[in-house]
Design goal:
This protein is 82% helix and 0% strand. It has 17 helices and no strands. Helix 4 packs parallel to helix 7 and helix 11 packs parallel to helix 14. The longest helix has 38 residues. The N terminus and C terminus are likely disordered.
């Protein structure tokens, strides 16, 4: 792709130029997208809680785990697309780029349809297995079935977001998500207030907004004139590209889902305290998604920059991309954690009014505020490993270090001390241990790869 085309498409250069500047410029629009997504999701809860009733709010809340599980799978597929397209672009492989993009579109669409089908057929059984309260289950089933109709669109949007991020264009996904998000909020208000649809109204609004974002990103890709143009007649499954995307996407998706399941055990520990502590934890936990999603933009940058420089065979720039991304993520995590510590009561007052609940929430914030920054060594190293085509071993490590470790901690350390602080401390310990293991894996894997291959021939050689 020539320089004029890159400027035309507002892309950030990944293989040349200042990494400090380019990674920040790449990450800021992503950061906006991530924060907007969280805020729009919070608006769903706020609308149904404010203008419907507590039954509708409880029904929507009871589906959180399933929604997180299945959206995590679709996001993982998008991450696989992002890295693989970055590899091919960095290597200057026009045919490989074309095959990867058209294979990925079909794979993501199929995955979205499969997830939708599973939710439509088995949502009742899954919610029953989660011990959803009988008075909530009917609305919860209706919510998840309607919401799942938007899953194919979510899969297509994640595909498009992965492609655009791979070429350094993170502004358009932000614009598309902003448009869809505003529509989502307006439809939430219309369906809930005017049509009195409660949980079903929120789900319908979400599904429609997902199709809007998917349509916008697909219209753009169909109109492109470079290597990343989508042509409907070229859509098919190319075996090599299919294997590469699945090897990256499936482990990432499973990793996202397993985190949701592991956090069920943490919630069980929280539920052993009184209702005030449970409510305080729920209010404080809203900060997790905001801060994590800000930091996540740098992990996406890490995978994209390493992926393109991998394709170009630029070893030195790959390592610097890793270090710069980690530094930014750590700094942002530390700053946001510090701000949360200082303004914690004001933040908690957005979700609770009782002083006792706010005090309970501050017990979580006082520990988590110092913990967020250290999670970058785990997530940043996982992203770096994906950038060099390694996704299965990092997933195994994170399952053991962050998921299994948390369960063991709850039944040993927490079971012994039975204090809320001993429960919250599991986060920084699990992030620290897993981060060390993930960092060592990336460094060792990187050195092994480069000891076997010269930088000039390494592009595109994946497991």
């Amino acid at each position: 792709m020539c320089e004029n085309e890159k400027k035309k498409y507002h892309s950030i250069e990944m293989t040349t130029g200042s990494l400090w500047k380019n990674i920040l410029l790449f990450s800021l629009p992503l950061m906006g997208s991530q924060v907007l997504e969280v805020l729009f999701n919070l608006s769903d809860v706020a609308v149904v809680g404010r203008f419907a009733d507590y039954m509708a709010l409880g029904a929507v809340g009871s589906t959180t785990l399933l929604v997180t599980l299945f959206t995590g799978i679709l996001i993982g597929m998008g991450a696989g697309v992002n890295v693989r397209v970055a590899h091919e672009l960095g290597a200057g492989n026009k045919k490989g780029t074309e095959e990867t993009i058209h294979t990925s579109l079909l794979l993501c669409a199929i995955t979205g349809l499969l997830v939708c089908t599973i939710c439509l057929l088995f949502s009742g059984r899954m919610l029953s297995m989660m011990n959803t309260k009988p008075e909530l289950i009917d609305q919860a089933i209706l919510y998840i079935k309607i919401y799942s109709l938007g899953m194919p669109a979510m899969a297509v949007y994640n595909f498009g977001n992965g492609v655009l991020s791979a070429i350094g264009d993170t502004k358009r996904p932000l614009i598309y998500l902003s448009i869809a998000g505003v529509v989502n909020v307006l439809l939430n208000l219309f369906f809930v207030i005017v049509c009195h649809m409660a949980a079903a109204g929120v789900a319908t609004a979400s599904a429609i907004s997902l199709y809007i974002s998917a349509s916008l990103v697909m219209i753009h890709l169909l109109r492109r004139t470079d290597d990343c143009k989508v042509s409907l007649r070229k859509i098919c499954l190319h075996p090599k590209a299919c294997k590469a995307v699945l090897m990256l996407g499936i482990p990432t998706g499973l990793q996202n889902g397993i985190f949701a399941i592991a956090n069920l055990f943490v919630q069980t520990g929280v539920n052993s305290f009184d209702a005030v502590m449970v409510s305080g934890n729920a209010a404080a936990a809203n900060a997790d998604s905001l801060i994590y999603n800000v930091m996540f933009s740098f992990y996406t940058a890490c995978a994209s920059f390493i992926g393109q420089n991998w394709g170009a065979g630029n070893k030195k720039r790959m390592l610097k991309s890793y270090r710069v991304s980690l530094t930014y993520a750590f700094i942002f995590g530390a700053i946001l954690g510090g701000l949360l510590l200082v303004f914690g009561p004001q933040f908690l007052s957005l979700f609770a009014t009782e002083p006792a609940v706010i005090d309970a929430g501050m017990q979580r914030i006082r520990i988590m505020a110092f913990s967020y920054a250290f999670s970058c060594f785990m997530d940043g190293s996982i992203a770096a490993s994906r950038g060099i085509g390694k996704s299965i071993p990092p997933t195994i490590i994170v399952i053991l270090g962050s998921c299994v470790f948390r369960i063991v901690w709850i039944y040993t350390v927490f079971a012994h001390f039975q204090t809320i602080s001993s429960l919250y401390l599991l986060y920084i310990f699990s992030w620290g241990i897993t981060g060390l293991a993930e960092t060592l894996f990336f460094v060792v894997s990187f050195n092994i790869i480069y000891s076997k291959n010269s930088p000039s021939s390494i592009g595109g050689r994946l497991e």
